[in-house]
Structure formats: structure tokens, C-alpha cells
Amino acid sequence: MAPKKTSKGKSGFFGVRQKPSENWGVEFSDAGRRWWIDTYPSAHEATRAYDVVVRRAKRPRSHLNFPEIKTRAEAEMLVPQGINMKEITTKKKKTKKLSVVVSAGETDEEAMARFAREHPEYVQVDLEYYWKREAEQKKKGLKKEDEAGPSTVIPIESSSEED
Predict the structure, then answer these.
(1) How far is 92 from 114, CA to CA, in rounded Å?
(2) Is residue 101 a contact partner of residue 111, using CB atoms and an 8 Å limit?
(3) SS3 state at 23
(4) Could you give the CA distance from residue 139 to residue 95 in angstroms, rounded to a whole number?
(5) pLDDT (tens digit per residue) in 27-65
(6) What is the mean pLDDT for each group of 10 consecutive residues in the chain (163 residues)?
(7) How far apart, in whole angstroms, are the C-alpha atoms of residue 3 and residue 67?
(8) How many Cβ atoms from other residues are within 10 Å of residue 15's Cβ?
(9) E-state strands within the chain
(10) Cβ(69)–Cβ(78) under 8 Å?
């Protein structure tokens, strides 16, 4: 049976792609989660490992690269390196930043006051940020003065010579 073509990679097998290190990597997706299986020295071994994971997930035989292998036990024997699954964590989705929509006839101040009433948690976070920043600036200001030592004013006498 000819290997199935995938849209990812050029290996010709499901879940297998060649890494820059010349090894073959195996990935698997199940129920919205992605799994990194492992890397293998050959595409053949990597493909066998993918098939073991598909069998463990109880996927249909049509998802297998080698459906002619009848049992999961037989498939696992063909992967001497074993299976080492790690979940691939995806990047956190960026939260949408809130915006203030100013209605016709509404001043900026009125719109900001409305936003503060509707979202007090953001106002509190802002206040805490500015309070912390102000405290840090005060500490830095005192340190600079302390490092320089006390200010000393030296009077300069002007001498005027009368001829």
C-alpha cells in the first residue's frame, strides 16, 4: 500500500517530518491537543511510532500509515526506541484590549468616567501601577541626592579694585 500524502512536510506519511538535524520528528493531534512524540533516526521508525500513538488513541485504521499491521502490540514491537509523548503547549491567545467608544455628543471625560464605572478592575490596576512607579521614582530621587552628598553652596566673593 502506498504511503498517504499529507499537506505538511514531504515525508509522505501522516504525522512525520524531517528535522534540520536529519532525524525524523513525530507529532500527533488529538481532541484539540498537540503531542510531540519523539525523534527517530529514520522516517520508517518515526512512522511506526506515529501508528502506535494512533492505535493508543483508538483512531480509525484509515489514520494509520501501515494499516496492514493488525494489533497494537505488534505495532509497539516495531518501535524499539519506544514512545515518549510530551504535550505541545500553544501560545496563549492575546486578550482583546478594551477600547472606549465615545458616543456622539459625549465628551472624552464622560466616556472615560463611563469606562471606569463599567470596568473598575482596569482603573484599579492602572492606579496601582502609577502608585508603584511614583514610589520607585521617589526612592531613586532620594538615592541620587544621598550619593551626591549634601549640597554645599560656596559663596563667591567678588573683588573690586579701586584705582
Answers:
(1) 30
(2) yes
(3) coil
(4) 34
(5) 888 877 888 888 999 888 888 899 998 888 888 888 888
(6) 48 86 88 86 89 88 88 85 79 69 84 84 83 87 58 64 53
(7) 10
(8) 24
(9) 16-18, 24-30, 33-40, 86-88
(10) yes
Whether the CA torsion 72, 78, 84, 85 is positive or negative: it is: negative
CB 26 within 8 A of CB 13: no
**Residue 49 corresponds to which cell in the numbers above?**
511510532
Whole-number Å distance between alpha carbons of 42 and 49: 11
**Residue 134, C-alpha cell as written in the block:** 511614583
Question: What's the pTM value of the predicted model, to 2 decimals?
Answer: 0.50
CA-nearest of 5, 49, 58 to 30 is 58
Q: Are 26 and 50 spatial neighbours (Cβ–Cβ below 8 Å)?
A: yes
Q: Which cell is 94 given?
A: 492575546
Query: Which residue bears the cell 477600547?
Result: 99
Give the ranges where the chain is alpha helix by DSSP (H): 43-56, 72-77, 108-118, 120-148
